[in-house]
Amino acid sequence: MTTVAEMLRTYPKDLGGVDREKLRDCIEACLDCSQTCTACADACLSEDMVAELTKCIRTCTDCADVCDTTGRVLSRHTGYDANLTRAVLEACAAACKACGDECAQHASMHEHCRVCSESCRRCEAACRELLAGLG
Amino acid sequence: MTTVAEMLRTYPKDLGGVDREKLRDCIEACLDCSQTCTACADACLSEDMVAELTKCIRTCTDCADVCDTTGRVLSRHTGYDANLTRAVLEACAAACKACGDECAQHASMHEHCRVCSESCRRCEAACRELLAGLG
Amino acid sequence: MTTVAEMLRTYPKDLGGVDREKLRDCIEACLDCSQTCTACADACLSEDMVAELTKCIRTCTDCADVCDTTGRVLSRHTGYDANLTRAVLEACAAACKACGDECAQHASMHEHCRVCSESCRRCEAACRELLAGLG
Amino acid sequence: MTTVAEMLRTYPKDLGGVDREKLRDCIEACLDCSQTCTACADACLSEDMVAELTKCIRTCTDCADVCDTTGRVLSRHTGYDANLTRAVLEACAAACKACGDECAQHASMHEHCRVCSESCRRCEAACRELLAGLG
Q1: CB contact under 8 A, A69 and B66
Q2: One CATH from 2.60.40.10, 2.60.40.60, 1.20.1270.360, 3.60.20.10 for C18-134
């Protein structure tokens, strides 16, 4: 059991109707994607062909920030606001879609972009799964 | 002229069709709102009646994170992606609306909530202004 | 193999003399501690005795921010600066020590504080391990 | 009066022996430096000679994150911990020194680096002023 699951289990009040497993998956995917995007932006910066990767660096940096904030918002349950959760998840799915698409274009040449693209796809899917369950 | 305006002026490439003044206003409003929300969550935490302010603390903490990320995304122009900018601005407007409403309920009793509510209103308006201009 | 390890493996240039395993452990500990502290601050906020947990909430919130930034700095290798890495790791160890001590005081009463305290201890240890190896 | 000053004024408990003006200056300098560094990293990314600015981009990105976290920690007063504040300010001064030095090397060629270097110098000085007063 990861710490994310343990923190969901030990939250002292009711978590509402949320699907606990999807919530855990989404928080973990956000953390993973944020770190991977931060590292991929930096790896791109160290490539000899950095001049051709500037859009990728920007998209990774944005995605890292958006996933970071989304993981934080999803880790809080007190005074839950479905509207805010929905808007944040939509923004996160958009950031992961943009970054996943961009990194996929460089995946055959740069392995860090392949790993990052896959992490973005997982996070986008986890956000959409959670969104679908918000009703 | 603030540093935000100076950084927009010295960006080496074209900024596209964006309204530079609205962009500057929105970045500044995000920075201000993020700091104010961080401080208001902490001020609520030091009130004797903290038990009645838990929803306010949560909403402020979320709003601080979302405004922070929005200010960062808006400060980048390389490889601009209108879809992502729009989704992030929508999330920021939602966070500021929720926090502005919540703090407004405590504004007559806690001056920090009044100041915070006004900062949230300004940031929500700035996000909507910028959104309207994105086409 | 976690994504953190994959991103270290696929970084295109030399990582210098750093102990790759300790670096991975520390990045993972920072991510875990940041999320756990965010969740613990929120769990404390939902406890009936929140008025007695205000210092804990503050310490958790600070620790979440410091671990977040530390995880980001450690995920970058381009233009490595040992002085900055050292100062950031010192701040992170201090934040984890403070939060681990504070949460330990509530661990017998609140399980989320026990989980959080353990996450802080692991992160503090990982920072000190990495610091010791920086020479 | 800025919002930072208003939030310090409306904090409901005693702020301790801190020099309120230096604290306000430092919080404002952290916000300004964080935004400026985020924008300078992006501006460097759009320069034709980006390959010669990779260290600058990395240093700016780190400095943005560290200043962001420092501004947050300084905006909280509940359960104040001088050790943590000191360690965070030391890390922030180190980040601003590194970034101010790096950007200064490009200041004559890139105006955004000049603006950023000056913002880093102001933030480093504000951190050191506050540190000196912590006793």
Answers
A1: yes
A2: 1.20.1270.360
